[in-house]
Specification:
The chain has about 140 residues and is an all-alpha fold. It contains 5 helices and no strands. The longest helix has about 35 residues. It is elongated.
């Protein structure tokens, strides 16, 4: 039963984290297009609050993921090659999360150098990675 609770919590926090990773670059799109100072300041506040709101979800996703792996044991982990690929993709998502922080800080100091189009493309990145992660976790090739 413990493994089922770990899976539940891992999935719950992952969904909450991914919601933030999907939404933050969308805010960047609108921020990059904004021209009115009050609107720009509002976007800065929204970005900061969202990033700090979803970061604990990223940490808890990792905590419960590691707990799940530990519950299954070392031999299972060695044999689960699909999981090794999944972990690599998850590492990309954590790097993406950090990159969003860097971009958020650039917006906060009015140093954005990217267009709204750049952020639209950036917004699609976690969608594709998430699809691959879920495919690996469900199909276990």
């Amino acid at each position: 039963m413990t493994i089922l609770w770990l899976k539940t919590l891992h999935l719950f926090f992952m969904v909450a984290w991914m919601a933030g990773l999907f939404y933050l670059p969308r805010i960047f799109v609108y921020h990059a297009q904004a021209t009115h100072p009050d609107v720009i300041e509002q976007f800065k506040t929204m970005e900061r609050r969202l990033w700090y709101f979803v970061t604990p979800f990223a940490v808890l996703t990792l905590v419960f993921g590691v707990a799940l792996i530990s519950s299954y044991g070392r031999e299972w982990f060695r044999a689960a090659s699909w999981l090794h690929h999944k972990i690599l993709l998850v590492m990309f998502l954590y790097a993406y999360h950090v990159y969003l922080y860097v971009l958020m800080r650039k917006f906060a100091s009015d140093e954005n150098k990217h267009s709204a189009r750049f952020y639209r493309f950036l917004n699609e990145t976690p969608v594709l990675i998430l699809l691959a992660i879920i495919g690996l976790a469900v199909i276990k090739p």
